[in-house]
Design goal:
The chain is mainly alpha-helical. The protein has two domains: 66 residues, Orthogonal Bundle (Arc Repressor Mutant, subunit A), CATH 1.10.10; 137 residues, Four Helix Bundle (Hemerythrin (Met), subunit A) (Up-down Bundle), CATH 1.20.120.530. The chain has a three-stranded antiparallel β-sheet with strand order 1-3-2. Strand 2 and strand 3 form a beta hairpin. Helix 1 crosses helix 3, helix 4 packs antiparallel against helix 7 and helix 9 runs antiparallel to helix 10. The longest helix is centred in the C-terminal third of the chain and has 29 residues. The protein is globular, with a radius of gyration of 20 Å.
């Protein structure tokens, strides 16, 4: 059987010359964005030689950039393949929401009595921007900023740091959470209701809304993964790779 051709990145990036002192960060950012927006799909091997040639650098900054992306869960190392792009919807996505369910209601409970009009106005502004945002990076940033605006008065810097780390991890699969799993409108409605409860100082309602919002997202991911498992069974059709365009 002929070997399946290895995808190349020549159609993703235009060859360029990158300053050596910026190479690691530039390559990391470029690869990350291309993975996040689906231009580099899951299971694509990333060859150091090709990346180095495309960016006009040595292999050293490429290795460093790939290690960073691996630490973010965007890549994994396979024997004979090297760095390979991971699926964006996987068990990690469900685990992230599990951790958020533990941390965020407590942060909101601590923060809610101390929220100022400025904090609430900032959260409202982020929601307004979310309604018109389209690309995954902007969606993730605005979503993170909305939640952190409501939690920032919790008075526990370590708690807020842990929450922000989980919110940053969410960017890996936010596009699919909102589109492929059809939860975009629900997320917007949840955010509006949560902000309304925060404005009125209704702690019990705000906490219930937040828990429901996070639980529904976790369930959506659980069902998505179950559907993928069913599609991979012998009786199912070939599964759609997370990140493919419909």
């Amino acid at each position: 059987m002929p070997r399946k051709p290895i995808p190349t990145l020549s159609g993703v990036f235009t060859p360029t010359e990158t300053p050596a002192h910026l190479a690691r960060d530039v390559i990391e950012s470029a690869l990350r964005e291309a993975i996040m927006d689906g231009r580099i799909p899951p299971e694509t091997p990333l060859r150091q030689e090709e990346i180095a040639a495309l960016f006009g650098v040595s292999r050293m900054p490429v290795r460093e950039a790939l290690r960073r992306l691996e630490s973010q869960g965007l890549l994994h190392i396979q024997p004979y393949k090297g760095a390979v792009v991971t699926a964006l919807i996987n068990q990690d996505a469900m685990d992230t929401y599990g951790v958020r369910l533990l941390l965020e209601p407590e942060a909101l409970r601590l923060s809610l009595p101390h929220l100022s009009d400025t904090d609430l106005a900032e959260a409202s502004a982020r929601l307004a921007s979310l309604r018109s945002a389209r690309d995954s990076a902007t969606l993730a940033r605005l979503n993170r900023e909305f939640h952190m605006a409501l939690y920032r008065r919790a008075g526990n810097a370590r708690l807020l740091y842990l929450i922000e780390q989980e919110l940053e991890q969410e960017e890996r699969f936010l596009r699919f959470h909102l589109s492929a799993m059809g939860t975009g409108h629900q997320a917007r409605d949840d955010h509006d209701a949560l902000l309304d409860a925060a404005r009125s100082g209704d702690e019990s309602r705000a906490l219930a809304l937040l828990r429901r919002h996070l639980s529904q997202a976790e369930q959506a991911i659980r069902h998505y993964l179950a559907d993928q498992d069913n599609a991979e069974s012998p009786a199912g059709d070939a599964p759609r790779i997370a990140g493919e365009s419909k």
